[in-house]
Structure formats: C-alpha cells, structure tokens
Amino acid sequence: MDGPSLDHEARGKQPGPHVEKRLNAAFVRKAPPGRHTDGGGLYLQVDHSGARRWLLRIVVRGKRRDFGLGSASLVSLAEAREKAYEYRKLARTGGNPVVRERAVEGKATTFAELARTVHERKFKERANNGKHIAQWINTLETYAFPLIGNLSVEDIHQDDLEQVLDPIWTTKPETARRVLQRMKTVFDHACGRGLRTKGNPATGMRSLMRDQRADTKHFSAVPYMEISDLVLDVDQSNDVGALALLFATLTAMRSGPIRAACWSEFDSGLQAWTIPAEKMKTRKEFTVPLSMPARSVLLRAQKHRTKASDLVFPSPSRPAKMISDATMRKLLQSKHPGATVHGMRTSFRTWAAEIVRADHDVAELCLAHKVGSRVAQIYNQAELLDHRLMLMEKWGLWAYGDLEPFSNGNDVEAIIRGRWMESA
C-alpha cells in the first residue's frame, strides 16, 4: 500500500491519486491563503502574510503525522513531490521520517519565514502591547529581510549578520542592538528546533562589532515608542507652549516656522498651512497638509488669538511677540530630559521608516527635505500632497496612542478616509 492509499484510507476515502486536484507551478506562485491539496497527502499551505510552505500529512506507525517539507520559495513543486514520495516510502517500510525531516527543514526554511513564525508565537498572548508587537517584526523587515530574509536559516553565518548591522551600528546604535537581539531570538528558536547544526550565529556578535558611540545617556529625540505617552501628557494643557509643542510634533516641522506661524498662513478650513519662503530653511514656500489632530490643536489655539498680532502661538507675557525658542524645549525636557524639539522630527522619520515603512520621498517631503532634481522637487511637492497628508494622519494616530486601526490586518487608510467623511 503506497502513501496516498494510507492517507485516503485514514480519511475513509477510496484509494488512488486524485489527479484532478494536482497543483501546477503557476498556481503555487499565486495561490491565495489557505491549504491547497496536491494529492497523496501533500499540501501547499499559504499564510495571510504571503508565506507559502509545503506540508505532508501521512500515517506513520499507525498515527497520522504532519511534516513540513520547506518553503515553496526554496522547494519547487517537483522537489516537494519527490520528498513526499520518499517520506511515504519510508513510512510504508516502518521507518520514521521525523529523523530525516530535521536534517532538511533548516535548509528549506528561510529566515523571514522563521522570524514571522517566532513573532506570531512570541506575542500570541500579548495582543495588548500593540506598539512593541509591531516594532518587533518591522525592524527585522526593514533591516534584516532585504539581506538575509530569503536565505535558509541553516546557511546564514556571522558575516551575513554583519552586513545587516554594519550600516546602522554607529548611526542608529539602539536600533542596531534591537535588530541583533531579535535576530538572535530567531536563531535561538532555530537551534532549539534542530533547524541549525552550527549554533547561533548571533552569539558574540556585539564583541565582534566596532565600538558604538559612548554618549548614549541623553537622547536628542524622544523614542517613537514613547511619543504617545508624551503627547497624551502634554495634551492635558491648553497653554501656548503645550499647544505649540503638540503642533510641532504632529506636523514634524522645525520650531522656527512653528513659533512664527500666523493665522493668515492657514486656509479657511485649516486644511493646509502655507509657510512663506522667508520662514523656511530652504527659502522656498512650503505647504503642510494638516491632519485631523493638528487641526484640533489649532482650534484650541484660537483661544489665544489677540489683537496685538496674528501669531498662532503668541508669547503670554508679550502677545505681540512669538514664544521664545526655550518655551517648547523647557516643557519637553521637563518630560524627557535631554530631548530637543528638533528631535521630534527624527522621531517621526524613524517611525515612518520602521513602523509604517513609508515611501522615502513622501517621508522626506513631510520634513521639507529636498528629494531628487529641482524639477522633481516641484513635481513631488504638488503630486505627493495627498500621500503626505495620509502619512501625517497615521502619525497623528500613533502620537495619540490610537492603534486600533493598525491591528488585525485593518486597512488603516480606509479607516482614516472614513473618519474624514464623518468629520466633514
């Protein structure tokens, strides 16, 4: 009795291959999420993340067993069928494919697939900590997956990890340490499951890397994981300095244009803020699309409007003058010693890259940075305005700790558009 017969008999079905259900290479590449049978107990398992792997279900010594035959990106349909045949043949003669499975699974499992598996298991019961859950896998997707994501976990060496870490080891030391720790966790899992025979390549990596900067006691930027705590704290006050700091955070603009902002620079619906060229570092007029949270701050700031000036954030003691450059800084540093208002731009930019993986040009334009040629700069500012607004709306959600739209596979942009319609 061959392997397919064992499987069909276990299901109470007639023996013999179901040829009409056999897969083909094109379907393997494009198959939707779910489990798709090839017959004889061989299945293609497609996760919602897009990861796809081979699964063989056969009877071994009287018990039904499932065997992973590797990633479909590394193991072809023909190879999966060949492996399935070998396993069925081994089981039919009384052998145990488990012994052979561990020897080949590490070769057939990519780092990206195992990382996602570890991520899912690690946080399965910790859904209440959404920010950390998202950050854990996103840092690996941003920094590790492009270089080692498609390599098998068995074949990765320390020099591969060094290529991941070297570009950010001194420029983003905290991020680099987190990436290293998370890669180590993935390889610990690989070693524990017997998927690696060479030990954990991340062990001892810190001692092999060059020294990082020693001045890490004070951070100029508030870590984006702590932004919502800061914003919700500052948001309790309607003082001019607090509102200015909130507006600076939500728009990611420099403190100069914030302090000098005038009501005449905003359109009637507070949808956009057009900053005159003389107030910009680039000496070019710049339009800032305003998110719903940013507009809310402006509405609260209207109580400070005075006949003495058109300033949005006037000095409480001298309304004809803008607030000093120390006003926001002192408030910020009372919450986060060592942090700077300019550092809030860094917080935004890091978040945009690591959490939502925003388009580079969109994120840079949100900061009023130059991108591409002179012609491209003019074109991009006009064409990417809607994209910039959407990114700033996402930042507003994050800043206020409104993370529900980011969870459970939600379409964040659709939720934001729905809220726009509700507020219209």
Automatic annotation (TrEMBL):
Extract the CDD domains matched here.
INT_P4_C (cd00801)
Q: Which Pfam families match?
A: Arm-DNA-bind_3 (PF13356), Phage_int_M (PF22022), Phage_integrase (PF00589)
- GO MF entries: DNA binding
Q: Which residues form a coiled coil?
A: none
Task: Report domain Tyr recombinase positions.
Answer: 217-393
Report the family membership.
Belongs to the 'phage' integrase family.
What name does UniProt use for this protein? Integrase arm-type DNA-binding domain-containing protein
Species of origin reads: Psychromarinibacter sediminicola
